[in-house]
Amino acid sequence: VFRLDKPSHNARIFIYGAKHQLVRTLQAGAMEPGDRTVSWDGLTNRGTMAPKGEYSFEVVARDAKNRPVPATPLRTGVVTGVVFSDKKPLLEVNGEKVPLSQITHVGVVREKTPADERLARPLVSPLPAGPPTGLRSPQGLGRYARALPGPAMHHTL
């Protein structure tokens, strides 16, 4: 997932292996501003299936005058818990503790789970104040997106 702030006339997505070797180049063409999702079929530029492992991507977008258009990589994941550090809440996402200041969006998990009906019910009373319990929801609390510094987003197949 990445964000374009301006329209691009031409965009290419470069997918790199764990040692930053180019694995695949995708031609994305013209794109409107907004959040975009990278969809990769797992194939290399040679047409063979890439091995399991960590991959990163870089988006290079240009406008009609061939000027660079910034593309900000975003991360998504399932929130599995909320913890407090120095009296500040942190979301636990994919094993990381993420400050709320780095969260740009939280939404409902799209996959159907047994907890869907319970999660969709309105909360009728406020949550009690007190220390964190350390309890976690096995289905997660939602999804998040976080802007990352640097040009690449990591993905594990």
TrEMBL record:
Residues 3-64 form the FlgD/Vpr Ig-like domain. The keyword Iron-sulfur does not apply. InterPro entries: FlgD/Vpr_Ig-like (IPR025965). Residues 117-157 are annotated as: Disordered. The keyword Heme does not apply. Keywords: Cell projection, Cilium, Flagellum. This is Flagellar hook capping protein.
